[in-house]
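ugh ok fine here u go
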Amino acid sequence: GYEDKYVFGRRANGIYIPRYQNFNGDKRDYLRGFGYQGSASRAGWSREIAELSIGSDLKAALSEPGGWGFGMMGFGEVLPHHDNFMTLDKTVKDKWGLPVIKIDAELKENEMKMRKDMQADAIEMLTHAGVKDVHGYDGNAVLGRGIHEMGTARMGADPKTSVVNKNNQIWE
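structure:
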């Protein structure tokens, strides 16, 4: 229905769905939860990135906007596991001669269970809302690519078990 519409600039079509899991009797098989962000847009020039056409065929294909699409991305809470940590690299230095940060962290069982629900719940919501051609997508998320992760610089009251104190100041 909106193939004749195209919007430039700031579109008023972003969504945010806050965390709703593990509240008021909704118990899942993982701790904490996730929220969603999403938006609608028309496909741009990247739809022809596979170079399926060249020359005048490519120009013709890109002279009209692509079809409309809507995407939702889940953003889950990562538990502060003790074996997810960061250290200063003793051999690699930055351009100022300072040691770079070395991060040793991965998603654990809790987060992997949460990711399954992220996809299933999004598909269910969109389907119930009447969206057509709904399909899931797993981007094989890596820590730090989507949100500001916590758990690699533990806060605490003891310098032996934490990196920063209650005022977010490093112990050393």
